[in-house]
Amino acid sequence: MAHYRAVGRLPRQRHTQLRDDDGHLFREELMGEEGFSSDSSLLYRRGVPSAITDSTVWELADQSRTPNHPLKPRHLTLHDLETGTCPVEGRRLVLGNNDVRIGYVLTGTDPSPVYRNAIGDECVYVESGTGTVETVFGTVSYRAGDYVLVPRATDHRWVPAEPSRLYAIEANSHIHPPKRYLSRFGQLLEHAPYCERDLHGPEGLDELVASCRDLTDVEVLVKHRTSAGIVGTRMTYATHPFDVVGWDGCLYPYTFNIEDYMPITGKVHQPPPVHQVFEGWNFVICNFLPRKVDYHDLAIPVPYYHSNVDSDEVMFYVGGDYEARKGSGINIGSISLHPGGHAHGPQPSAIEASLGAEFFDESAVMVDTFAPLDLGEGGRAVEDPAYAWTWAGRGPGVGDDGGPAVFSNS
């Protein structure tokens, strides 16, 4: 987004010489989107950013996908998913299509390798944990509730201070605030549920550069695309990628915490777009947060039944009270997948039970995709097979006295 920053050492004018105290000329690198016709940043480096000494295959974790066929809603229990501890290599694919992939990892406290996603931007939701992400632009700190936005092709590494649950949304595109929230010049407007003050960019550039200055032959894991699909390469660089002494522009990583999101409420139940926080090509990201609910005298606070005729809906439940869903298996750490072509909504008894409610205490991250989502190997490993039948209370393997149906507050 067009939110200009200038950090570190810069020449007075762009594309002119910048030298250190010994007369050494820094190398200028333009990092730009959409063929240099959109947002960009200028970086000034000590080393040569294209100087590699080796390139070998990085074998990615299983990227296979299985179609949601026969069609049915799904419940995935991510807290039951065993992952590696590396914030990058330990991710397991949960859901995905050709536009976006959702992965999950419970990290340890060891730093990840330096990593670059050359396919698209990443939006990583921090379910729990704290730490930092070191990048060529400086260091961003993260905490529970943060979205960590990392632009495509940004060299970075995760440094958890404690084990962290990371919900990684990997795009094939750029991820940005919804256009309806932005002025024609890129400023967040007054009706937007957050503003520039809520976005936290990188800091500590000088300290990061100093810590890496003498390191050579540094391995960088690069995720990229070929005609064969998504692959990985281990590239070895002559000098450390974190050698940027200054940069300016509108392209850089940042964090946004859901505590700073201002929910939009109404007299009657509001549709999912009012909860939107980001968007990418063929998908949107929303968050459902603790909020006052509808104030019409005859309002029904839980959602009406709805069919996602153009999209698949993925809800990741990250906080709050889900007593109304007891018996369905939905809990914190759950994912529900409600696919296009299938209506979903509240249990009939939940409608009556919600009448008169003034507040919902719930937190969830939603991804809506406009192309069907497949199940990744991680999603298949932790599926609750009884979920699809919870509205009826009976189905394959479920008796007539099955538990109450689930409802979604989306």
TrEMBL record:
From the broadest rank down, the organism's phylogenetic lineage runs: Bacteria, Bacillati, Actinomycetota, Actinomycetes, Propionibacteriales
Q: Which residues participate in Fe cation binding?
A: 306, 313, 344
Give the binding site residues for homogentisate. Answer: 322, 344
Q: Among the entry's GO cellular component annotations, what is one?
A: cytoplasm
Q: Name one GO molecular function term.
A: metal ion binding
Annotated InterPro entries: HgmA_C (IPR046451), Homogentis_dOase (IPR005708), RmlC-like_jellyroll (IPR014710), RmlC_Cupin_sf (IPR011051)
Q: Per UniProt, which keywords does this protein have? A: Dioxygenase, Iron, Metal-binding, Oxidoreductase
Q: Which cofactor does it need?
A: Fe cation
Q: Where is the Homogentisate 1,2-dioxygenase C-terminal domain?
A: 282-359
What protein is this chain from?
Homogentisate 1,2-dioxygenase
CDD domains named among the record's database cross-references: cupin_RmlC-like
Lineage, top-rank taxon, reads: Bacteria
Protein family: Belongs to the homogentisate dioxygenase family.
* Any one GO biological process: L-phenylalanine catabolic process
Enumerate the active-site residues. 269 (proton acceptor)
Keyword Oxidoreductase carried by entry: yes
What organism, scientifically named, is this protein from?
A: Nocardioides zhouii
